[in-house]
User: What shape does this take?
Amino acid sequence: MRRCVHRNPNFEPGTLTISLTEDQKKKYRKQLAMPGMTTDCQARLMKARILILGASETAFVCADHLMRLGAGHLELAGASHYDLHLLAERLDALHPAPADTHVGVSEQTFDAHDSEQLITSFDVVVDGLSDWQLKLVASDACMHLSKPLVHVGGEGFRYQLYTMRPGRSACLRCVFPRIGIDDFPKTPDEDALFPPVQGVLGSLQAIEAAKLAANFGASQGNELFKFDFLSGEMEMITGLDSVSDCPDCRKPRR
Assistant: This one.
């Protein structure tokens, strides 16, 4: 069951082709002027289905940017229904006029039993979850279904960004030990929030999700970025290829 909270009047589930109208070309003219961003890329973005897991501030920022870019369908899931509807209401307040994005709130619970059923119909999954065990569940499901996952995790001022691409990337279960994260890391303090940090992270996730959905630009899939926003340091860890003896990232299902 899904509840629509922001309906695009032109949205048709299962639409195979989308042609931009003259009004849409005018509306998105600035991003269409960017290198590599063509009308075909925009059309692919406008028919893409993107699942955003979690109701964090990062998830909100990511969803807001994807709506501004004209992503076709956003589904919000993976948190309490109350928090998801609050997030949807915030988005609706920012985008009160009819938009090119159809936003829905999933009534389906995201857990280890039903994760694949929820994810299977989406092109890209965005990890805005705060629960680390659910992040691993998302990784497992995306690997098994061969769906890209745009992950952000961390606490305070220290975070990492990782775009997991099945067939090219290690799963989160393999990545976390390699970057020094325990199997059961400290649960982030949800009351600790520095909005500019979440703004940067959500924006980066929106960029990655848009590139994957529209098929433009580079997303290597075996690189992870670590940010320390307090010290200003940034580190890129490379070579995070799938692990040969891992049952999750060795042979993703096609």
